[in-house]
């Protein structure tokens, strides 16, 4: 499934304004991906589209981390850039996203990475908030990933209804 997503990249770019690519261009590491939601494909009438354009941001860049239990467990996502004000468009500290789709209850193994990208774009486009600038949401390396995971765990635990079902 992961290799298939890489092969369908051009189609998703054209249809949805999504760029999904392995971070390791050689294809040796299938765990770490980059997802870009291109501003030109985000409705200019929604607050997210207006904010991105006002700040000259060409894309929302996210890191997608594939856990060992994928696709039974959801991938872990975090926004790398631009910088959003906390809570804006469902983005929190360290780029953690507050989306039920990323929880054990909300995730379905039938969802592909490109479908997840469309879902993230749709939900963020329905949100409110502001862009704080074109910079990064935090450390782009493993320490930033761990900080985003910790923030997401806090978010998830505050939504007890998201924990109604548990996978393995």
TrEMBL record:
A Pfam family assignment: UQ_con
Signal peptide feature range: none
Highest taxon of the lineage: Eukaryota
Stored InterPro entries: UBC (IPR000608), UBQ-conjugating_enzyme/RWD (IPR016135)
Domain UBC core: 1-161
SUPFAM superfamilies: UBC-like
Entry protein name: UBC core domain-containing protein
The species this protein was found in: Alexandrium catenella
């Amino acid at each position: 499934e992961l290799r298939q997503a890489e092969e369908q990249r051009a189609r998703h770019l054209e249809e949805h304004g999504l760029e999904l690519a392995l971070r390791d261009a050689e294809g040796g590491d299938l765990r770490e991906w980059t997802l870009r939601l291109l501003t030109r494909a985000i409705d200019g009438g929604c607050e997210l589209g207006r904010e991105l354009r006002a700040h000259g941001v060409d894309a929302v860049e996210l890191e997608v981390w594939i856990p060992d239990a994928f696709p039974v467990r959801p991938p872990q996502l975090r926004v790398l850039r631009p910088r959003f004000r906390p809570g804006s468009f469902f983005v929190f500290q360290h780029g953690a996203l507050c989306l039920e789709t990323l929880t054990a209850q909300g995730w379905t193994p039938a969802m592909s990475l490109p479908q997840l990208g469309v879902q993230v774009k749709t939900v963020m486009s329905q949100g409110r908030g502001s862009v704080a600038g074109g910079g990064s949401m935090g450390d782009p390396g493993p320490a930033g990933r761990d900080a985003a995971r910790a923030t997401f765990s806090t978010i998830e635990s505050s939504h007890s209804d998201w924990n109604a079902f548990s996978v393995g």
